[in-house]
Amino acid sequence: MFHYLEHKEISNSDEENCTYHRKRYIMLYMKIITLLEEYRLKNKISQVKLAEMLGVAFATVNRWFNKRTVPNKIQTYHIEKLLEGKK
After folding, report:
1. Residue 6, phi then psi, degrees to nearest 5
2. Residue 1 pLDDT more than 50?
3. Most buried by CB count within 10 Å: which residue of 7, 32, 46, 74?
């Protein structure tokens, strides 16, 4: 009846693959945050002003720059638009 719920053993290669993708995901977001910080400093924008420009709280921007969290998909979209000069 619930054959699709059968327990599937996770192999070492599956775990390694998952770890690889997780690390890659984090590195991509770190690159975006680095570019955002460079943009902010080059344009003499405070974290408060940057947060307003992106429509997020100051605490959110501060957490990104202190590597406590990463932007979600929507936030990343807005960061990319800002960096492309379309915002």
Report:
1. -60, 145
2. no
3. 32
CB 47 within 8 A of CB 58: yes
Output the pLDDT for position 9: 54
> What residue segments make up the domains of the chain, in order of their start?
43-87
> Does an H or E element contain 37, and which?
helix 12-42
**Other CB atoms within 10 A of residue 81 CB:** 12
Listing DSSP states for 17-36 in one string gives HHHHHHHHHHHHHHHHHHHH
Reported as a single tens digit per residue, the pLDDT across 18-75 is 787 777 777 888 899 999 999 999 999 999 999 999 999 999 999 999 999 999 999 9
Residue 56 CA to residue 66 CA, distance in Å, equals 16
Both tokens of 79, joined, read 């960061």
Neighbouring C-beta atoms of residue 71, cutoff 10 Å: 21
